[in-house]
């Protein structure tokens, strides 16, 4: 019952995905080696991050790998204090979108910055990491040369 209205409580739903990565394996291996890759369509030139196996613009499968420098500026962010169940054990965190100088946008956790110091326009770097459970991922970190 919610505020006097009848309601039904649903069962807990857990989704688990098995995502094939054979066509983007270079990206995952690159993260393990400390590199971040995007893909560029050889037909139309569109750059993708995260990388894709096929171009969503012209539908070509003729792509090339491009290593990103990974530097850019925060264009949006949110502080997450109320975490979803799968992150309940994690401390509050910040998620940001950065527009990279390489020409793509990246959505990632922003780590290494105090909540009060995060701002639109701050310089950040996209950095590969290995999670506690051994999974390769990437995060945004404040750039040492933040002069905005």
Q: What keywords describe this structure?
A:
single chain, five-stranded antiparallel beta sheet, three-stranded antiparallel beta sheet, OB fold (Dihydrolipoamide Acetyltransferase, E2P), mainly beta, 8 strands, 2 domains
Structure characterization notes:
With 148 residues, the protein is mainly β. The protein folds into 2 domains: 47 residues, Rubrerythrin, domain 2; 80 residues, OB fold (Dihydrolipoamide Acetyltransferase, E2P), CATH 2.40.50.840. Helices cover 5% and strands 34% of the residues. It has a 5-stranded antiparallel sheet with strand order 6-5-4-7-8. Strand 5 and strand 6 form a beta hairpin. The longest helix has 8 residues. It starts with 24 loop residues before the first helix and ends in a 6-residue tail after the last strand.
> What is the strand content?
25-35%
Global morphology: globular
Distance between the termini: 51 Å
What percent of the residues sit in helical stretches (DSSP H or I)? under 10%
Number of structural domains: 2
Topology:
Layout: H1 25-32, E1 37-41, E2 47-48, E3 63-67, E4 71-80, E5 93-100, E6 105-110, E7 123-130, E8 136-142
Antiparallel strand pairs: 1-2, 1-3, 4-5, 4-7, 5-6, 7-8
Task: Summarize, please.
The protein is mainly β and 148 residues long. The protein has one helix at 25-32; strands spanning 37-41, 47-48, 63-67, 71-80, 93-100, 105-110, 123-130, 136-142.
């Amino acid at each position: 019952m919610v505020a006097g209205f009848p309601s039904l409580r649903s069962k807990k739903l857990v989704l688990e995905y098995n995502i094939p990565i054979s066509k983007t394996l270079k990206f995952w291996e690159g993260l393990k080696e400390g590199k971040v890759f995007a893909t560029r369509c050889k037909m139309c030139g569109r750059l993708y991050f995260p990388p894709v196996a096929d171009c969503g613009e012209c539908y070509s499968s003729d792509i090339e790998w491009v290593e990103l420098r990974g530097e850019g500026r925060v264009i949006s962010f949110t502080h997450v204090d109320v975490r979803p169940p799968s992150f309940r054990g994690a401390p509050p965190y910040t998620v940001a979108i950065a527009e990279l100088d390489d020409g793509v946008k990246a959505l990632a956790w922003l780590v290494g910055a105090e909540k009060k110091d995060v701002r639109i326009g701050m310089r950040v770097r996209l950095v590969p990491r290995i999670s506690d459970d051994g999974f390769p991922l990437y995060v945004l970190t404040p750039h040492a040369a933040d002069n905005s």
